[in-house]
Amino acid sequence: MDSNEISVQGDLLKYLESEGYLQDLATTGAKYLQAILEMRSKGLLGPALCFRPEINLTKLKTMSVPLWRMCVEQPALAERLLQQLTMYILAEFLGGRQLFSEFDCEQIFTPLRLSLEADDLEKESLQKNSKQQLVLIKGVLSSYVSPSKYVRSCVTRCRNGECPGAQLKRRPGSWFKGRLCFYCKTEELEMPEERDVGEEVLVTILPLQGLDTAVGGKTSAIQIIFKDDLSAGLTIGSTIQVLCRPAMLQRAPNLTLEACSRVTTELSLSQTKMIPLTFHVEEFYSRYENSPWATVAALAMHFGRDMLPYGCLFNVRMNMILSLASQGSIRPLPLLVLGQENVLASRIMESAAKLSYRSLIHGCQNTISGVARKWEDNRENHCVEAGSLVLASEGVCLVGDWTGLKNEAKTEFKSAIEKGFATVKLPNKPLEFPMKASVWTHCSQLDKKMLKPVIE
Ligand SMILES: [Zn+2]
Questions:
Q1: CATH architecture observed for domain 1-115
Q2: Which among 39, 125, 164, 299 could disulfide-bond with 46, CB atoms 3.0 to 4.6 Å apart, if both were Cys?
Q3: What does the pLDDT read at residue 340?
Q4: CATH H superfamily, domain 303-455
Q5: Strand ranges (DSSP E) for 64-134?
């Protein structure tokens, strides 16, 4: 260990102390050693200790730049350091030295929990995507697989009693049948009662810009594994920011990341879009300074001003601004535009929708509310995928020409708007999502019979 590493270790100790984690470790560590003693008397190795202090990167940076850099650039190394430090404290300060002589680090589990303060979120340093580095992923949660168990560590021994491998040993990950002893190549045995099990959820995140096109979304999706306490309460359609590291799992697909923390800052409040004002708005504003209506009307005329003459399709433009303004409310306003100018309506809607927090063009290959399907061969697990309405939450779902939709699709859109929620059918129970998207559609056939249910 070089002097640099020693100083980083000292910094970690100092950080844990300043946050009160050393005190926590002393309390839980003492209980843990007691539990281990009892298990040992029964001939078992005993449970793994889980110590997971949360490390606030913003705060850490003010205390130790080398340690901060290690957490950001080599999270696996920082985790190992935390593990060794925990082990050292248990052995040297809590009287566990006797127990630890045969003990190895796998008995201690220290998943890295990292957090960031809101101001630090935009920092460039976390955006570079290197193989080992911590990355900040922002986007919409578009699918998840229902929670499943995973094996954090297992205890094995060699079948051959004479072999040095016959001693119980905890290993990271799960055991597989047919694994051979390192010393004598005899088959190993697992002690299933000593298995350390956690819960995980596999999630897909779409970057916000991935929503803009109907097909492009899938290609830019990112898979993230959320483990243990991080796996609870994930809902599709919600905006999420996650600090991630590359997942160290063989079974995971290549591009899977592992979440180190969830940052719950609401994006919608912080993200404001700007439009440059033209001469017309300024003129309007100065002429009718006391009329908010005039200003709103002038703003509405900005939508699609590069393709439509000033004053044209005024009602459409005005209603789009009303619908945009209603976003974030319990019932955001849907919009149905009637008229002969289908192409123009569609283009002006696309242009205005870009001003909303999210916008999505619904394509016939997408589901409307969402879908649940079986996950691989597992009978109990399901993958729940968000449809257009759920993905467009707090934004605009562009449906295009209403007459071009199939009847089932029309019914599903109308039902979601009327009921105020979108429904995904799971095998045993429906999942309901509050309807937070504004549906925008247009129609050139003024068939009153067809339109009646929409207008009501
Ligand atoms: Zn052996």
A1: 2-Layer Sandwich (3.30)
A2: 39
A3: 82
A4: P-loop containing nucleotide triphosphate hydrolases (3.40.50.300)
A5: 108-109, 113-115
